Amino acid sequence: MATFLYKVGRLAFRRRHYVALLWIALLTLAGVGAASAPAAGASSFSVPGTEAQKAFDLLEQRFPGMSADGATARVVFKAPAGEKLDSGANKATVEKTVKDLGDGSEVVSVADPFKGKAVSKDGTIAYASVKYKVSGMELKDASKDALTDTAEQARTAGLTVEVGGDALTATPETGSTEIIGIAIAAVVLVITFGSLLAAGFPLLTALIGVGIGVSTITALASALDLGTTTSTLAMMIGLAVGIDYALFIVSRYRAELAEGREREEAAGRAVGTAGSAVVFAGLTVVIALVGLAVVNIPMLTKMGVAAAGTVAIAVLIALTMIPALLGYAGKKIKPAGEKSKLLGGGRAKAAAKPGRPNMGTRWASFVVRRPLAVLLLGVIGLGAAAIPAASLELGLPDDGSQPTSTTQRRAYDLLSEGFGPGFNGPLMVVVDAKDSRTPKADVTTVTDKIKALKDVTTVTPATFNKDGDTATITVVPDSKPSSVTTEDLVHGIRDAGAQVKADTDSSVLVTGTTAMNIDVSQKLNDALIPYLILVVGLAFLLLIVVFRSVLVPLKAALGFLLSVMAALGAVVAVFQWGWLSGLMGVEETGPVMSMMPIFMVGVVFGLAMDYEVFLVTRIREAHVHGEKPGQAIVTGFRHSARVVTAAAVIMIAVFSGFISSSESMIKMIGFGLAIAVFFDAFVVRMAIVPAVLALLGKRAWWLPKWLDRVLPNVDVEGEGLREIGSTGSGSGSGPDEDRELVRA
Description:
This protein is of the alpha+beta class. About 60% of the residues lie in helices and about 5% in strands. The chain is built from 24 helices and 11 strands.
């Protein structure tokens, strides 16, 4: 592979005009496609195989037009102090608001609080339920604006009015955090390369790659039901790996220049060596993202595949456009160790101390001398950080986790005040009595069993469909939706339903937003182990091919699991236990978002393997070229520690930008990914990895002979390039080599 990529790099360097035009043309085509494609709404959300989803599907069949999974809004009214809502002026305001709420084209129904007995016992708080045809993720902005505008008009009349429910579900907005991340990345790259031009290349190619990927997703969104949220993950991951991959190749190019090679030869060798690491690092990311299909949640699968496509584009751009840009830059890109004149290159060079080892060399030398102490310190430290993960509680956020400044949270608190905390998460029980000879009696039995359960505040009378074979019962718990008690109640109703099924021919299903959240959390929790086995297993096999070793990939996988567990422990400590919650802006502690473990495994695993592949291939390269194990570690760190550090700092900065979000879910994701990258890059890759390699010595590269014969030799370390002249002999070859590349 190294020889093939070497030829790709030299070809792109020489034929830079064609390469640049090709990528610009692809960006233009993708942009035109995105601009001309029909606008797509949010992707439809379904969770196949869960009881809540089966109930939604059944309601769609038996109650046509009911829009069982449609969005709901609760417009909550509170009378001024000393007044009641049923007084003349206040009642007129509520009734006018209810009338205005029903005017929307997507509105199915609006329940009048005075007719539906939705007024608190003291008469000061009431709510109007609004039902929509589509889910909150698919609801048009016009409908959301009409909802908030109507509530604002009621406020002007003197009432306290807040809006809750999933109708105001906001599509994640991007923009400012990415800009902050890009700005920090630019500063880090300038410091790393000592050149504005060299720093600009990774940013430029990353933006082009993300532009092509996101524009393609937008162009296909309507046809493939990708929705507006699908591009979010693609943008975040594409930007991250795009910068990283280009950073690796530009850094290696400057190192090759420092060894005295001609520029075209240096570009070829940079792509042949660092580019090989980029290819396999990209493959691990793609495996992790595509592996999200294991969860069997269509929206997650689409997000993973779309992000994987963007990563593939980032790999191709790094391998072709970076050497093309290096060709355009010419002598403006300085060899490693030199800075541009704009950044004081002449002064720095004059003041530099000749022969002084860099920080990576000094750190690696220390670890090689004290490997056991470094290993124990790193493992014990991460193990201590992982302890809170043993208390991990999973759930999905509701309006109760929103900041108190939001109308959703204020509506949640008003409903809890007027009707009890469980009123924010009612359960819908569906009784399918189609095969029963006594449907009404079966429904009565189900109702009585539910009333006998603990934590039940209210059970509404059953509502039958036209055929009289299906009924719905609304159950209001006594505890809040995200509590363990409510989850136990859901399981209790389902256990009672199983008894009814055994005694009669009727089936009982529990659904609603709260039940759906519980089912999704359980589905994600059940999928975590198979996902880990798939992703880590495939990557383990891939890394055996890359490193031609069994112990190095095993060490990489175990180190990753340790860093993820430590990161989950930190998330539990902050968002569940409340440690440093004030510093992080966490207003409400509670269960950790159920997507966090599997999301962190997928995203962090891909990024961690980037650092692993780039760092360890440099060490293996030195070892293959004849250096002793300890010296190979020092050599690998001398060339790659600075680059891996820069890449990790960029990722931490990008993810940390999301901590400032007012959305608790976004805040949690930002913190979790940032701390996971910190643990993995600086503790696992920079400390534990060299310590383990130093302790293993030559045994680190052990591979059974039979396996050595079976595995393909991909030559990631560039051993095949040694046969090519050290100063690029044959660098003047042209069409013949181009034809050879095409045949390859």
